[in-house]
Backbone:
């Protein structure tokens, strides 16, 4: 069964590969028109910032690029990135037009806090997407049973400037640890992290992603009971003091079969972002496509099933782009 799941993930990535590419080459600043917002996309190219190659952002970003290219006048490509913080920085810089991000990182960006200290980002949201689940996995021979036990251990906190790194550092701090001095932080992407768990050069990992994440499935198949999840919900209260967007959730046991029961964890939504000068017609058209053709995104990755109109407008404190707000109102969201 696990081999079939890995094959399914590989097939999904192959199906969206045609939608993946590099950075934008259209650097002309877009402008919004006044008056009523149309939902017909303009001619042009856009690029989508995603995340690590074995993560859900990458798979869905490629699928979204293909969906846009096949059903509008826009030609979209998706690029592998380090994820949330980097995505927003390069979105603002004009390297990308659309970006996936964790909601807590996006909240930091608009407030000018955290990685965006004194540099509030001029961004808007197209929609709330699906929830990300914080995976914290350790080798069973590591002696780690709680986050506090990570003191002195080799822990992957995710790619530099990723949403995973933001959450990892906050969870460590909530457990009384300094990420810079109390753990041997390995700032690695998911592929290198999984390899490190396999060869024993890493004791544990943090990963924030949708369910299932291909790299974690690979780890579960390869190492089985040599790795296990740990419960990080004792740190939830401290994280909610930083940002109320954090919630308690659980990773169903059947997702990876690591451990013997559902794993309590911390959940944070994902949002799809654009700059505040992104053309309103394009924002409306893309947002409409996501919901009218969501079933096509589900064939790329099952996490897309959690993209629901009932939560589409839940993007605070990031404001909805006017074009997206029109699309969601027309679709009956909220």
Residues:
């Amino acid at each position: 069964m696990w081999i079939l799941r890995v094959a399914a993930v590989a097939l999904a990535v192959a199906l969206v590969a045609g939608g993946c590419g590099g950075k934008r080459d259209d650097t002309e600043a877009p402008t919004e028109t006044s008056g009523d917002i149309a939902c017909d996309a303009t001619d042009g190219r856009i690029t989508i910032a995603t995340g690590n190659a074995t993560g859900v952002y990458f798979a869905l970003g490629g699928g979204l690029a293909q969906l846009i290219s096949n059903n509008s006048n826009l030609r979209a490509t998706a690029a592998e990135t380090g994820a949330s913080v980097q995505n927003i920085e390069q979105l603002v810089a004009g390297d990308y037009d659309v970006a996936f991000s964790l909601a807590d990182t996006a909240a930091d960006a608009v407030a000018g806090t955290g990685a965006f200290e004194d540099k509030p980002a001029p961004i808007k949201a197209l929609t709330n997407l699906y929830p990300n689940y914080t995976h914290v996995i350790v080798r069973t021979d590591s002696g780690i049973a709680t986050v506090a036990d990570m003191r002195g251990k080799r822990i992957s906190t995710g790619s530099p400037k990723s949403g995973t790194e933001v959450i990892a550092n906050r969870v460590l701090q909530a457990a009384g640890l300094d990420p810079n001095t109390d753990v041997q932080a390995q700032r690695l992407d998911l592929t290198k992290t999984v390899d490190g768990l396999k060869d024993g050069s890493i004791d544990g990992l943090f990963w924030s992603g949708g369910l299932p994440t291909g790299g974690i499935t690979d780890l579960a198949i390869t190492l089985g009971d040599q790795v296990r999840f740990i419960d990080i919900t004792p740190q939830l209260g401290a994280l909610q003091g930083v940002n109320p967007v954090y919630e308690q959730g659980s990773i169903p046991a059947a997702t990876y079969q690591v451990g013997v029961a559902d794993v309590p964890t911390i959940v944070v939504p994902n949002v799809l972002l654009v700059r505040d000068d992104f053309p309103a017609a394009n924002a409306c058209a893309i947002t409409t496509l996501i919901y009218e053709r969501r079933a096509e995104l589900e064939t790329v990755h099952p996490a897309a099933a959690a993209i629901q109109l009932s939560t589409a407008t839940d993007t605070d404190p990031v404001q909805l782009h006017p074009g997206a707000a029109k699309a969601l109102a027309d679709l009956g969201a909220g």
The beta strands are 44-49, 74-79, 98-102, 123-139, 154-156, 184-186, 204-209, 227-229, 247-251, 263-275.
